[in-house]
Amino acid sequence: MRPELGFFLLLMCMVLSGYGAFASLVSAWTKKRSLWLSARVATTVSFVLCLVSAGVLWSGLFNHDYSIKYVLENSSNDLPYLFRFTAFWSSLEGSHFLWTLLMQLMVVIGLWVYHRNNEHIMPHVSLFLQSVLCWMYWLATSYSDPFIRVSFPPPNGQGMNALLQNPYMAIHPPLLFIGYTCLAIPAAYAVAALIYGDITQGWLKTTRRWTLISWTFLTAAITLGGRWAYVELGWAGYWAWDPVENSSLVPWLFATASLHTFILQDKMGQLKRMGLVLAISAFFMCFFGTFITRSGVISSVHSFAQSPIGPTYLYFLASLFAICGAIYLWRSDSILPTDARKVWGFSKETMLLVTLFLLFMMITIVFLGTLFPIITEWVNGQKISVQAPYYNAFSPILGVGFVIAIALGNMMRFQTGKIPKAKRSFLIATLGALPLSLAYAWGGDVFRSSGAYLVMQLVGYYLISWSILCLLADLWVRLEDLRFRWVLLLKKNTGYCGGLLAHIGILLCIAAFLGNYRGLEKTVTLRSGESTDFYVYKVDFQGLHTKEVENAINVEAPLLLTKASGKKTTVVPARSKYPTKDEFMHEVGLRSGFWHDFYAVLSDFKKGQNGELDRITVQLHINPTVRLVWYGVMIMCLGGVVALFDRGRGSRSKDAFLSS
Amino acid sequence: MRFFQADCIVRRYFFIVCLGVFTFLQAKTFAQHAPGGPAKSTEISEERYREVAGSYRCPTCTGLSVLESDAPFSVQIQTKVRQMLESGRSDTEIKDFFISKYGPWILRAPPKEGFGLVAWVLPIVFLAFGFLFLLAVFFQKKKAAPEMSIGRGSSDTSSEKLLKQFENLVRRPKGGQ
After folding, report:
1. What's the gap in Å between the CA of B107 and the closest CA on chain A?
2. CATH number, domain A1-165
3. How many domains are contained in chain B?
4. What is the pTM of this model?
């Protein structure tokens, strides 16, 4: 009953979206408002049906209905409640369904909530959104169908992949998909503006808001994915430049570039077409990333065996690219900058160009690195690997570029490029950065490194401290202008406050990333009662325990850590055996401090028999400043949220022809 | 500060110095990846071993080096690398050995020869062109009478500009209300 009901509902949604797209098209062509209103009703009904269909799948998961193939493959009778909920998105069909559901939600919101000045482009917006939605529903009822029936349901399911039974992995896909789907509205508005022939009065405000929401969610989602990799995969890192990681990073980079372009568009009426291209590209890249990883074109920790969605995804992407490209080429000359003879010169606008350039460089490197293995194989049949060393070769120069550009860009003013109170600001920054960076280097034990790595880190910390002080000095100047009425600054220039937080956040993250250059590692074999010295800790192993948790058996090896000061902590690296899988998964033994994490992985264990002692092999790691990454990202997300509250941004049209 | 009100010549030199710094930094990051190492000796430091072994990928994992994995295949490669280093082989010889056994796939970055060079050269080319383009934009001369047409249209009343404005008004119908 459930499979048929769920499938039928999705089929209805596809039909409704198809109708909605068609009605919007006719409405845009004939300028009949009633048709677009009907299309809006269609998508609202579609949302309700999609929600019910999702409810059917969830009910199947909670009630162990193994007549649904998806439930059979992704859950089992002993699965904890939280993971029965998250099993919805644990593999391909379900995660596409979640994406479709969230896209449908965003479309409904986007079509009901809009600036009244944009009424006349809504049919175009609806056309774009509902076409994409129709394709997604089609995929959900054909190649990526979660409602396939199993003829003879067995008594127990195949269980969820043990790696996914972790709260970070539970929340990562929904947040990521919210980020992706929120990018659909700016893309739709961009295409609508092109077809209509102008950027309308309320366009920028709406587009900026949606992009900002998406950016915040993407920042959180990408970081949670990194956090999951850190605690679950056991290789002591949080970012491996894996194709799937890269393909979530590229939309984030495009969204960041969009936001900076919108500033230019808002203040100077420039780079409108760049804004359109970036909005469409960001949305396009969400699907492109999914295509290269889910189709099996590139192997990655996320990829499944050659899945049938590859070719259809390719056709969709090619069509999207061709259609949007054609519309742009045909209509872009009707979108004009406010001042076609603008001289950029030495100004904040040019610094924003520098920012865009750096972001494009980053996109190029990530994109090129991810696709290069396929390109090489296609060109000369050779198989190659592109991993961290390639990206790390270019990161330092981009990092330096970003750090300096953030400082100078925020300080310079529009049009003149003047830096108010420059002497004082630079004095504070240049001199103040010295003690700050040295204090940081001392606290973080940076002088343990040597040679090129030491120089790189010291220069890095100095530049980052300099940059943060430049930002704070600029804040001081602005507060001085307001006679230190900081509430006024918050109220009148909320966008600036959000931006300040976001920039400080990313600078802290860059500082935290530099910690990777002075990590420590030691592999050691210990018997019960033996101990070893590692960094500032004395590590004691007392013996193995076995423990039963909800649906697994854990073999734990508690390690007692003693510092020179006498302070003791225990970390418990473990291996877990789930009944439905053959391998032992890792549970990392983690003690997080501000300056470093102590990270222990149980590589091998042997329970002592016949009076023999237990024996373990552990990999011990010291990972510097990992916690700072999480703090930096939290500050960035806070900045994104604060910036959302800016009422004024984007609402003052700088367009010479429409300001009336 | 005088600098920002100084004339072009001073700012030009400042940016040339910046260009020099960037080039130096690039060269530095590439120097770290140059083949060859310290003088041959059978006593190898842990750091040297980690640097050499870390440039080979774990064949059975995704995204990790042999050092970061405890899979049997990786451990085999770790031992082989240590052995070869201790018997005095150079980094290039070790690299050639592994490439002959597994192909260039065993390396963690595209080889700096043949088609692989594209992956290294392209970003540098973009970086260089972008930098030059931005320099040109920075030094764009401001016109004698600065045009500020934010708001109500520009002060210039040349016929072409008026014509363009008119054309655009005709092409784009006022919308909505």
Report:
1. 6
2. 1.20.120
3. 1
4. 0.89
